[in-house]
Amino acid sequence: EPEVTQTPSHQVTQMGQEVILRCVPISNHLYFYWYRQILGQKVEFLVSFYNNEISEKSEIFDDQFSVERPDGSNFTLKIRSTKLEDSAMYFCASIRSKAGELFFGEGSRLTVL
Amino acid sequence: GESVGLHLPTLSVQEGDNSIINCAYSNSASDYFIWYKQESGKGPQFIIDIRSNMDKRQGQRVTVLLNKTVKHLSLQIAATQPGDSAVYFCAEKGNYGGSQGNLIFGKGTKLSVKP
Description:
heterodimer
Protein backbone atom coordinates (compact mmCIF):
# COMPACT_ATOMS: atom_id res chain seq x y z
CA GLU A 1 0.00 0.00 0.00
CA PRO A 2 1.43 3.41 -0.92
CA GLU A 3 2.33 5.63 2.00
CA VAL A 4 3.61 9.05 2.93
CA THR A 5 7.17 8.84 4.25
CA GLN A 6 8.88 11.37 6.47
CA THR A 7 12.46 11.96 7.57
CA PRO A 8 13.93 12.32 10.07
CA SER A 9 11.79 10.47 12.56
CA HIS A 10 13.27 12.53 15.37
CA GLN A 11 15.43 15.63 15.33
CA VAL A 12 16.92 17.46 18.26
CA THR A 13 18.12 21.00 17.65
CA GLN A 14 19.24 24.06 19.51
CA MET A 15 17.01 27.11 19.70
CA GLY A 16 17.72 29.48 16.83
CA GLN A 17 18.88 26.75 14.45
CA GLU A 18 17.29 26.05 11.09
CA VAL A 19 15.50 22.77 10.61
CA ILE A 20 14.29 21.07 7.45
CA LEU A 21 11.77 18.26 7.66
CA ARG A 22 11.33 16.10 4.60
CA CYS A 23 8.38 14.25 3.19
CA VAL A 24 7.74 12.07 0.19
CA PRO A 25 4.00 12.18 -0.53
CA ILE A 26 2.19 9.37 -2.29
CA SER A 27 3.32 9.49 -5.90
CA ASN A 28 0.09 10.31 -7.73
CA HIS A 29 -1.13 12.80 -5.13
CA LEU A 30 -1.46 16.45 -6.02
CA TYR A 31 -2.20 18.26 -2.75
CA PHE A 32 0.32 18.32 0.09
CA TYR A 33 0.02 19.41 3.70
CA TRP A 34 1.92 19.95 6.89
CA TYR A 35 0.28 19.59 10.27
CA ARG A 36 1.76 19.71 13.72
CA GLN A 37 0.81 18.17 17.04
CA ILE A 38 2.22 19.49 20.28
CA LEU A 39 2.54 16.69 22.81
CA GLY A 40 -0.85 15.74 24.21
CA GLN A 41 -2.74 18.24 22.11
CA LYS A 42 -4.76 18.14 18.93
CA VAL A 43 -3.45 18.02 15.40
CA GLU A 44 -3.23 21.50 13.87
CA PHE A 45 -3.20 22.49 10.21
CA LEU A 46 -0.17 24.50 9.10
CA VAL A 47 -0.17 24.78 5.33
CA SER A 48 -1.40 23.27 2.11
CA PHE A 49 0.48 23.22 -1.18
CA TYR A 50 -0.79 22.67 -4.69
CA ASN A 51 0.62 23.31 -8.13
CA ASN A 52 3.92 24.50 -6.67
CA GLU A 53 2.48 27.16 -4.45
CA ILE A 54 0.90 27.59 -1.04
CA SER A 55 -2.88 27.41 -1.33
CA GLU A 56 -3.86 27.82 2.32
CA LYS A 57 -2.03 28.50 5.55
CA SER A 58 -2.93 28.92 9.19
CA GLU A 59 -1.94 31.61 11.67
CA ILE A 60 0.73 29.26 13.00
CA PHE A 61 2.52 29.30 9.65
CA ASP A 62 4.35 32.62 10.06
CA ASP A 63 7.45 33.99 8.36
CA GLN A 64 9.66 31.49 10.17
CA PHE A 65 8.09 28.67 8.18
CA SER A 66 8.44 27.86 4.52
CA VAL A 67 7.61 24.94 2.28
CA GLU A 68 9.13 23.76 -0.93
CA ARG A 69 8.81 21.01 -3.46
CA PRO A 70 12.34 21.04 -4.82
CA ASP A 71 11.85 18.10 -7.16
CA GLY A 72 9.12 15.77 -8.30
CA SER A 73 8.99 13.74 -5.12
CA ASN A 74 10.08 15.65 -2.00
CA PHE A 75 8.03 18.16 -0.03
CA THR A 76 9.89 20.00 2.70
CA LEU A 77 9.04 22.15 5.69
CA LYS A 78 11.72 24.59 6.82
CA ILE A 79 11.74 26.37 10.14
CA ARG A 80 14.20 29.21 9.84
CA SER A 81 15.04 29.92 13.47
CA THR A 82 13.54 27.39 15.82
CA LYS A 83 11.93 28.35 19.11
CA LEU A 84 11.24 26.19 22.13
CA GLU A 85 7.53 26.23 21.29
CA ASP A 86 8.22 24.67 17.90
CA SER A 87 8.81 21.36 19.67
CA ALA A 88 6.12 19.07 18.32
CA MET A 89 5.35 16.19 15.98
CA TYR A 90 5.14 17.41 12.41
CA PHE A 91 2.98 15.39 10.07
CA CYS A 92 3.06 15.52 6.33
CA ALA A 93 -0.08 14.50 4.46
CA SER A 94 -1.29 14.27 0.91
CA ILE A 95 -4.43 13.71 -1.12
CA ARG A 96 -4.86 12.71 -4.70
CA SER A 97 -7.52 15.24 -5.61
CA LYS A 98 -9.27 18.19 -4.05
CA ALA A 99 -11.95 15.93 -2.58
CA GLY A 100 -9.79 12.92 -1.75
CA GLU A 101 -8.98 11.07 1.46
CA LEU A 102 -6.10 12.59 3.42
CA PHE A 103 -3.18 10.23 4.11
CA PHE A 104 -0.73 11.08 6.88
CA GLY A 105 2.89 10.12 7.33
CA GLU A 106 4.28 8.74 10.56
CA GLY A 107 5.54 12.15 11.63
CA SER A 108 8.83 13.81 12.49
CA ARG A 109 9.37 14.63 16.13
CA LEU A 110 11.18 17.93 16.60
CA THR A 111 12.72 18.74 19.95
CA VAL A 112 14.09 22.24 20.41
CA LEU A 113 16.44 22.73 23.35
CA GLY B 1 -15.51 30.71 14.90
CA GLU B 2 -15.14 27.08 13.94
CA SER B 3 -14.42 24.55 16.60
CA VAL B 4 -14.54 20.83 16.90
CA GLY B 5 -14.45 19.24 20.32
CA LEU B 6 -14.99 15.98 22.09
CA HIS B 7 -17.27 15.31 25.03
CA LEU B 8 -15.11 12.64 26.73
CA PRO B 9 -11.33 12.71 26.91
CA THR B 10 -11.02 9.03 27.92
CA LEU B 11 -13.13 5.96 27.38
CA SER B 12 -12.50 2.51 28.81
CA VAL B 13 -14.44 -0.48 27.48
CA GLN B 14 -14.37 -4.22 27.84
CA GLU B 15 -13.20 -6.27 24.88
CA GLY B 16 -16.19 -7.31 22.83
CA ASP B 17 -18.38 -4.41 23.91
CA ASN B 18 -19.43 -1.63 21.59
CA SER B 19 -17.74 1.77 21.90
CA ILE B 20 -19.25 5.15 21.20
CA ILE B 21 -17.07 8.21 20.85
CA ASN B 22 -18.76 11.60 20.59
CA CYS B 23 -17.84 14.88 19.02
CA ALA B 24 -19.47 18.31 18.82
CA TYR B 25 -18.89 20.91 16.18
CA SER B 26 -19.95 24.51 16.13
CA ASN B 27 -20.02 25.49 12.46
CA SER B 28 -23.34 24.55 10.93
CA ALA B 29 -21.88 25.20 7.47
CA SER B 30 -19.37 22.34 7.81
CA ASP B 31 -20.01 19.84 5.06
CA TYR B 32 -17.46 17.10 5.59
CA PHE B 33 -16.43 15.19 8.70
CA ILE B 34 -13.84 12.52 9.30
CA TRP B 35 -12.81 10.21 12.11
CA TYR B 36 -9.13 9.41 12.55
CA LYS B 37 -7.40 6.87 14.75
CA GLN B 38 -3.97 7.63 16.13
CA GLU B 39 -1.88 4.94 17.76
CA SER B 40 1.00 5.91 19.98
CA GLY B 41 3.91 7.33 18.00
CA LYS B 42 2.11 7.15 14.66
CA GLY B 43 0.31 9.48 12.33
CA PRO B 44 -3.48 9.79 12.18
CA GLN B 45 -5.11 7.00 10.22
CA PHE B 46 -8.35 7.54 8.33
CA ILE B 47 -11.26 5.50 9.65
CA ILE B 48 -14.42 6.80 8.05
CA ASP B 49 -15.89 10.00 6.72
CA ILE B 50 -19.33 11.44 6.14
CA ARG B 51 -20.73 14.34 4.19
CA SER B 52 -23.38 16.64 5.52
CA ASN B 53 -26.01 15.29 3.13
CA MET B 54 -25.92 11.98 5.03
CA ASP B 55 -26.98 11.00 8.56
CA LYS B 56 -25.21 7.68 8.81
CA ARG B 57 -22.41 5.81 7.15
CA GLN B 58 -21.14 2.33 7.89
CA GLY B 59 -17.79 0.75 7.42
CA GLN B 60 -16.22 -2.43 8.68
CA ARG B 61 -17.18 -2.57 12.40
CA VAL B 62 -17.52 1.23 12.46
CA THR B 63 -20.48 3.52 12.00
CA VAL B 64 -20.49 7.29 11.93
CA LEU B 65 -23.65 9.17 12.81
CA LEU B 66 -24.20 12.82 12.02
CA ASN B 67 -26.88 14.88 13.71
CA LYS B 68 -26.89 18.26 12.04
CA THR B 69 -29.71 19.57 14.23
CA VAL B 70 -27.53 19.48 17.33
CA LYS B 71 -24.20 19.56 15.47
CA HIS B 72 -23.07 16.24 16.85
CA LEU B 73 -20.96 13.48 15.38
CA SER B 74 -20.36 10.04 16.81
CA LEU B 75 -18.23 7.04 16.02
CA GLN B 76 -19.49 3.62 16.95
CA ILE B 77 -17.11 0.69 17.05
CA ALA B 78 -18.72 -2.73 17.21
CA ALA B 79 -17.16 -5.60 19.16
CA THR B 80 -14.22 -3.50 20.33
CA GLN B 81 -10.87 -5.26 20.20
CA PRO B 82 -7.56 -4.56 21.97
CA GLY B 83 -6.20 -3.32 18.63
CA ASP B 84 -8.78 -0.53 18.71
CA SER B 85 -6.99 1.07 21.67
CA ALA B 86 -5.85 4.47 20.42
CA VAL B 87 -6.74 8.13 20.45
CA TYR B 88 -9.67 8.97 18.19
CA PHE B 89 -10.04 12.39 16.61
CA CYS B 90 -12.95 13.87 14.79
CA ALA B 91 -12.16 16.48 12.18
CA GLU B 92 -14.09 18.79 9.93
CA LYS B 93 -13.28 20.49 6.70
CA GLY B 94 -11.97 23.88 7.72
CA ASN B 95 -11.96 26.06 4.63
CA TYR B 96 -14.86 26.20 2.27
CA GLY B 97 -13.80 26.15 -1.31
CA GLY B 98 -10.39 24.89 -0.34
CA SER B 99 -9.17 21.35 -0.61
CA GLN B 100 -10.49 18.59 1.56
CA GLY B 101 -7.13 18.26 3.29
CA ASN B 102 -7.47 21.47 5.31
CA LEU B 103 -9.01 20.00 8.41
CA ILE B 104 -9.83 21.21 11.91
CA PHE B 105 -9.23 18.48 14.45
CA GLY B 106 -10.82 17.98 17.82
CA LYS B 107 -8.80 17.26 20.95
CA GLY B 108 -9.14 13.49 20.85
CA THR B 109 -10.61 10.72 22.97
CA LYS B 110 -8.38 7.99 24.28
CA LEU B 111 -10.01 4.60 23.95
CA SER B 112 -8.68 1.84 26.20
CA VAL B 113 -9.89 -1.71 25.65
CA LYS B 114 -9.68 -4.05 28.61
CA PRO B 115 -9.15 -7.74 27.79
